[in-house]
Amino acid sequence: MVAFALVTEGITDQAVLENILYCWFDDVEINPLNPLRDATDTHRAASFSNWEKVLEYCQQDEFKASLQFNEFVIVQIDTDTAEHPNFNVTLTNQGVERAPIEIIADVKQLIVQKIGNDFYQQYHAQILIAVAVGSTECWLLPLHSKDHHKTDNKVFSCDKKLKGLLALRKGTPNSEKNHKNYFELSKDFRKRKTLLDAAKRNESLDDFVTQLQTITMPT
């Protein structure tokens, strides 16, 4: 069994990552560190955590200690508010959206800075940084919209677009931001072919899947 610790913006992001990990590994243990979950979390909003808490957690001793009990740790963060002064990653250049790969690189650099370069260099093979350009809703769109393509860079409206798609359907899951709904919305990521096809249509999801592909399992 391989153990992954999760440091994420919210419980809905954890749900998405869980299904991806269940797809990629036959035997996996998932340990949410931030935010923590309990029996009431299926009804708790994704905003229970946020990007500021993610950056803060990366600087704490608890983050470093997580690798004593887990083979890997995943740090997940969205970029929809990346231009906030405390985040300070530019999303546009002269009014034009920057390429996702550029945004991802800048956010990873910020995360490494918060973790500490020396610690990161020592343990980089065990630290995965999942940058959802826009939000993890952008990762879900390829599962729920045949019209969503990699060239569609409207990354600031993924949440609204996903809500619109789900509003056209009857029954569950719906767009309410709780773990149960998002676990159901992302369940098709458990199919390897579906996950890889979705990654072809979203560059930040593709970046995370590429990290999974390069993992060397501990012996």
Task: Describe this entry's structure for a reader.
The structure is a single chain. With 219 residues, this protein is an alpha/beta fold. It has one domain (2-213). It is 45% helix and 14% strand. The chain has ten helices and six strands, in the order βαβααβββααβααααα. Strand 1 (2-7), helix 1 (11-24) and strand 2 form a beta-alpha-beta unit. Helix 6 runs parallel beside helix 7 (158-167), helix 6 crosses helix 9 (192-199) and helix 9 (192-199) packs across helix 10. It is globular, with a radius of gyration of 16 Å.
Give me a quick take on this structure.
With 219 residues, this protein is an alpha/beta fold.
Features:
219 residues; 4-stranded parallel beta sheet; two-stranded antiparallel sheet; single chain
* Physical arrangement of strands within the biggest beta sheet: 2-1-3-6
The count of helical stretches stands at: 10
What does the main sheet amount to? 4 strands, parallel
Q: How much is the average pLDDT?
A: 89
- Our estimate of the beta-strand percent is 5-15%
Q: Gap between N and C termini, in Å?
A: 11 Å
Total of domains: 1
List the helices and strands and how they pair.
Layout: E1 2-7, H1 11-24, E2 28-34, H2 51-58, H3 61-69, E3 72-78, E4 92-93, E5 96-97, H4 100-115, H5 117-123, E6 127-132, H6 136-144, H7 158-167, H8 179-185, H9 192-199, H10 203-213
Parallel strand pairs: 1-2, 1-3, 3-6
Antiparallel strand pairs: 4-5
Helix pairs in contact: 1-8, 6-7, 6-9, 9-10
